[in-house]
């Protein structure tokens, strides 16, 4: 079996309805990859789904990793644990990716001054509420250099920082990028934003909770930082027990 250059990890819990859309976009990006489609392996990290997520992934030729630990960091790490590529990339199961994603990532990680990064996102639909929410996030992206979308790094660096924090119910991706950036600073390298190949982010949370829901949540952020009980209630309602 040929060793892939890139391992794309897709954490999933009950994503049978949206996973085909993502996998179609991944297929297009694999075909467009200058190293060839076989240079990318696709791993679906399943978090004890009760729908047909695993069947969909298996039918599509994905490798399957499994964990019953209900922490998103543990799901990402489970996928990384079986990955064979020198480059690791992560994308949420309700997203879709740009055709040029793998060439952009490989190009950036061929440079010693880049430690890793993310592609950023655009939204699958827009409204005034969604646009204002998106705009509210942009200054933090500019200030920190950290973004979302397809997150990528070298496998060796992933191992060095210990992967994702499995104790966190959310914001584990932020902590991961902070740790990666810290490692890069020690080497004279930085995080990159592959803005020409933005992923498309799902708006299902806006569909479920309303297009203006995020702005009131942001005002409660200090309380979530203080109260573990409030954090658990929020994370369960918003992610872990959100109805799918």
Could you say what the CATH architecture is?
Alpha-Beta Complex
Radius of gyration, CA atoms, in whole angstroms: 17 Å
Number of E strands: 9
Strand line-up of the largest beta sheet:
3-2-1-4-7-5-8
Order of helices and strands: EHEHEHEHEEHEHHEEHHHH
Mean pLDDT level: 95
Q: What gross morphology would you assign?
A: globular
Separation, N- and C-terminal Cα atoms? 36 Å
Contiguous low-pLDDT stretches (5 residues minimum) are: none
CATH superfamily: Spore Coat Polysaccharide Biosynthesis Protein SpsA, Chain A
Helix content: 40-55%
Tell me the name of the CATH class.
Alpha Beta
Judged by helices, strands and strand pairing, the structural class is alpha/beta
Number of domains: 1
- Which sheet architecture does the biggest sheet show? 7 strands, mixed
Q: Tell me the fraction of residues in β-strands, as a range.
A: 15-25%
CATH topology name, in short, is Spore Coat Polysaccharide Biosynthesis Protein SpsA, Chain A
Counted by DSSP, the helix tally is 11
